[in-house]
Amino acid sequence: MLVLGWEAAVAAGLLREAFFPRPSTVLVHARRLIADGTLLGHAGPTLVRIAWAFSLAAGLGVTVGLAMGLWRRLREGLDPVFAVVYPIPSILFLPLVSFVVPRGEAALVLTTAVTSFFLIAFTTTEGVRQIDPLVVEAARHYGARGRRLFTAVLLPGALPYIFTGLRLGLGYALIVVVAVEIVNASRGLGALLWLSWQVLKVEDMYATFFVIAALGAVLSYGLAALRTHLLPWAQDVADR
Amino acid sequence: MKVEVDDVTVAFESRGRRVVALERISLQVPAGEFLCLVGPSGSGKSTLLRVVAGLLRQTSGTVRIDAERPGTPATAMVFQEHALLPWRTVLANVAFGLENRGVGRAEREARAREMLALVGLSRFARHYPHQLSGGMKQRVGIARALANDPEVLLMDEPFAALDAQTRTIMQEEVLRIWATLGKTVIYVTHSLEEALLLGDRVVLMTARPGRVSQVFPVDLGRPRGLEVRASQAYGVLLEKIWAQLRDEVVRAMGEDREGAHP
């Protein structure tokens, strides 16, 4: 609908074609970018960066989040640090990170991972905290202690929240990686977008734009589908 | 004696004040008895149950449970809000205690299926708790407790959250299961009618601090069904306990009012 409206608006002269090319034109350009390998050449590095950054953020975020959920002391200690660091726009970590690790891929990946890490850690912590204490008490009563309590009760209890965190974190990784690529990369979808804009290849810019949006949708829905598959027990208010 | 509660006191600090939840409670429960604890809210009946279950440590006194068979737990509790694990199927919930004790898969699932059959839920083994009604969830809670083959079955207002019709059906279920298995049961309720329908004895507790007010034997015969409510003996006993309970409730409410406006 949106795309059709856009097409019509351009055709009717409501939008200037120089800045808002018709979606059909964009499609043609997208086809060409795919055919000559440009798009794939840029999408590859972006996907690799997201994969690394997301794995890093998910691994560390879930671990730290679980620990914060289980140990009040740790949570109270880290909360103020998180509160200060979390709202800093992710892109600003790039120079910071560049002081620590060599500029280049590692810096891009680390910067991309920062905000995702916080999101995943936050939601995981909340996931542990919101488990019904009565369920935990009952599980203990029926002999679940230590490791067993963790694997059979606390971890599965936190999983719906962890999945929410992963979905948010993955979305953020995509947002940040594009921003970082705009600032500091010669390859990647962000770089392609920016380059197209600078040389006023507006159609290519839009083509890249749509590819990024589609990528975001695929990743997000992929995780959502995975959640439904893995957590059949998680009830949905909307299903009632 | 199956259960001996001797001089048990539970006290804790709340906002700088010492609150006595249970004061010097002593009770003996013979093997196979169905004992009901009733009393106004705040009388510590659930607290007492938790102490017997080992979920709460008493401040002083002792609880002794006669456990003849090694390897089985002394108590198993049916919780008020069912407290099933939402991420486990009905079958896996019932088998949970056995699983924690290292019983092999085939054996624990066979046992769990047996208990599900006993509570009439065989068809729902693969369902998740959220797919069941309140009454069915509580049946699972009972099956979960029984699967552990405990010395004493503890029930903490198990049907308080159910509608009246379902509750009545569940009460008859409990009587049937108890007659089948002959377990010692300690059952907490705030309903005198329920206590008289189910119990061999009714222990009336007082509020703040929780003490044993009086113990009433229920001589209404067995097997007992809902028709017992029509008998004269039932009415007389109900009135007798109610008269005593009324005093306790009024006293507790009076104290609440004082507490609200010091």
- So, CATH architecture of chain A? Orthogonal Bundle
- Characterize the main sheet of chain A: none
Return the structural class of chain A. mainly alpha
Inertia-based shape of chain A = elongated
Mean pLDDT of chain B: 91
Q: What level of helicity do the residues of chain B show?
A: 25-40%
Task: List SSEs of chain A in N-to-C order.
Answer: HHHHHHHHHH
Number of strands of chain A: 0
Overall geometric form of chain B: globular
**Rounded average pLDDT of chain A:** 90
Q: State which percent range the strand residues of chain A make up.
A: under 5%
Mind telling me the C-alpha Rg of chain B?
19 Å
CATH superfamily of chain A: MetI-like
The number of distinct β-strands of chain B equals 9
Task: Characterize the structure shown.
- The complex is a heterodimer of chains A (240) and B (262).
- With 240 residues, chain A is an all-alpha fold.
- Chain A has one domain (22-229): Orthogonal Bundle (MetI-like fold).
- Chain A has 10 helices and no strands.
- Chain A has helices spanning 2-11, 23-35, 38-70, 72-85, 93-100, 105-129, 133-141, 146-184, 189-198, 202-230.
- The two termini of chain A are 31 Å apart.
- With 262 residues, chain B is of the alpha/beta class.
- Chain B has a domain at 1-72 and 192-248: Rossmann fold (3-Layer(aba) Sandwich), CATH 3.40.50.300.
- Helix content of chain B is 39%, strand content 24%.
- Chain B has helices at residues 45-53, 90-94, 96-100, 105-118, 134-147, 164-181, 192-198, 232-260, and strands at 3-14, 17-29, 34-38, 60-65, 75-78, 152-156, 184-188, 201-206, 211-217.
- The longest helix of chain B is centred in the last third of the chain and has 29 residues, at 232-260.
- Chain B is globular, with a radius of gyration of 19 Å.
- Classes of the chains: A mainly alpha (240), B alpha/beta (262).
- The A-B interface holds A 132, 134-135, 137-145, 148, 152-153, 156-157, 159, 231-235 and B 53-55, 73, 76-77, 79, 81, 83-88, 96-97, 99-101, 128-130, 144, 148.
